[in-house]
Amino acid sequence: MGYKSEVLVNGEWGSNSIVWPDRASAEKAAADLYLRWMLTLGHRAVEVDEKPNRPTWDEWVAEHGLPPRSVTL
Description:
Elements: E1 2-9, E2 12-15, H1 23-36, E3 40-48, H2 57-64
């Protein structure tokens, strides 16, 4: 059992393939996606019946750093 991060865009909840081991990690990742994606209206963490494929958010950030906040076009 794991948790996915979701963001609300154009009236639909969307997520990616990342499954976090705990709700707190999924909530932190959802908040991060919310700040980086365009036109987001909300974010949440949902429980899924999938095996986690990432360590906790804090462990991931410690190893890889925070995702970039801007892009160059």
